[in-house]
Amino acid sequence: MNAAAAAILAQEETHVELLAAIAEAARAIFDAKAASIFLLDEETDELVFEATVGEGSDKLVGTRFPSSAGIAGFTLVTRQPLILDDVASDPRFARDVAEATGYVPQSITAVPLLHGDRTLGVLEVLDRPSRPDDALKELDLLGIFATQAAVALELLRTARGARRALAGSDDLPGRIARLAAAIDDLPDERRAAGLELLAALETLVRGGRSGG
Amino acid sequence: MQELPAWSLPATAVDGIELDDEWPAAVTREWAWEGSTGEGVRVCLLDSGVDAGHPLVGAVERSVAVSTDENGEIRVEDDPAGDLCGHGTACAGIVRSLAPGCELVSVRVLGAGFTGSGRLLVAGLRWAVEQGFDVVNMSLSTTKREIAEALHEVADSAYFKKTMIVAAAHNLPVDSYPWRFASVVSVGSHDQADPLAFYYNPSPPVEFFARGVDIEVAWLGGTTIRSTGNSFATPHIAGICALILGKHVGLTPFQLKSALYLTASNVGTGA
């Protein structure tokens, strides 16, 4: 049980690292100044920065904004990828990024992160050099990254759900996991006594019947 | 006596289904839309709203917003908010550039957040079909299967009520709707500069490709912006549909799609 809890926590960290790696790869491939991945928090109807690399990225992870705000929000609700250039001429276009970072990009490429029939978030690449001749290829390439990012987001979402379930309202599974780990760590003799105690406890909670 | 619905065709009734419009042996662009401005055609933009004062958009006949009230009931009300993003204005400007004489109506289904947006999309499309618009531009899609079923029903109903739905396709390997339905015209992007260049795709589900790369489009506050995406290819086809319907009033979506096919840049006389 304890091992399972540790694995879930480790998974969450790994998935966060994976998202950052995908954002970094997208930034590098498109020769862009920054890239961000947003997760939709369905409970609050907000988009959350989950990974961000490049300019203006400091301390952004965890920042939230309404799910239909800015280009990221619009990409989310339309489920349509798009490239916008010259957005800096009106900061309203980029308020999702600009308000949080103070960094106003010249261009935004945004693609929705879809997994099965779920819309999970948005991947944005900021300030890539304008290459109209390659725009269609770029959107296709970004689609490949989006597929990866969507799978990583789904794993992260699942891991967080599992952690919440594990924590529970009274953290019963966590307490049992810690107890099991503590008994497991005991010297042999005391470990045997601990296991006997657990067996007795099991008999007790089952109403006197043997645990079998 | 009220006529019975035409579920069958006895020989004596053949004269009764004569077509209003004579189709030539070879359908050309000249036949299809030369001289048309789209006048008399009502085009609905299901989007983020439209900035009616924009010089590239011109007059917007009506703007409504679809929302849910405190009881969860759908409401369609006149909307003074304009465009919340710029996307709807961009699409409206493209339709206007091709069909300057058409009537534009904005139905805003976006802007209230992600939750419930699929339901507003269905309600907005249903309202548009009830209003009898000739063309509905949908540069948006949904992936929710329960929403897709409702959308499918409305799209099929539009097809038989002579409302042509023109929907942006996806360039991602996902199942999204309504562009995948056979009752709509689905549009992807090509990267040429000619707004009247469009291609039929013999390997659906994307049926047509239209200009969608590096387009200067209308945006918020009377500005323009350069943009790329199937969202902007779609209103090119919507505009061409408006031109055709302006000249050939009352074509069914089947006939309109046939005319699009026959005038496509890679088909027949369209080249």
Structure notes:
Chain A has 212 residues and is α+β, with helices and mostly antiparallel strands. Chain A folds into 2 domains: 2-167, 2-Layer Sandwich (Beta-Lactamase), CATH 3.30.450; 172-205, no CATH class. In chain A, 51% of the residues lie in helices and 19% in strands. Chain A is built from 6 helices and 6 strands. Chain A has helices at 2-29, 70-78, 95-101, 135-167, 172-184, 188-205, and strands at 34-41, 46-54, 64-66, 82-85, 108-115, 118-126. Chain A has a 6-stranded antiparallel β-sheet with strand order 3-2-1-6-5-4, sandwiched between helices. Chain B has 271 residues and is an alpha/beta fold. Chain B has one domain (33-270): 3-Layer(aba) Sandwich (Rossmann fold). Chain B has 6 helices and 11 strands. In chain B, the strands form 2 sheets. A 9-stranded mixed β-sheet of chain B has the order 3-2-4-1-5-6-7-9-8, with helices on both faces. In chain B, helix 2 packs parallel to helix 5 and helix 3 runs parallel beside helix 4 (145-160). At the A-B interface, helix 2, strand 4, strand 5 and helix 4 of A face strand 11 and helix 5 of B. Strand 4 (82-85) of chain A pairs antiparallel with strand 11 (224-228) of chain B, so a sheet runs across the interface.
Blueprint (SSEs and pairs):
The complex is a heterodimer of chains A (about 210) and B (about 270).
Chain A: H1 2-29, E1 34-41, E2 46-54, E3 64-66, H2 70-78, E4 82-85, H3 95-101, E5 108-115, E6 118-126, H4 135-167, H5 172-184, H6 188-205
Chain B: H1 29-33, E1 42-47, E2 62-68, E3 74-78, H2 87-98, E4 103-108, H3 117-130, E5 135-138, H4 145-160, E6 164-168, E7 185-190, E8 199-200, E9 208-211, E10 215-218, E11 224-228, H5 230-247, H6 253-263
Parallel strand pairs in B: 1-4, 1-5, 2-4, 5-6, 6-7, 7-9
Antiparallel strand pairs in B: 2-3, 8-9, 10-11
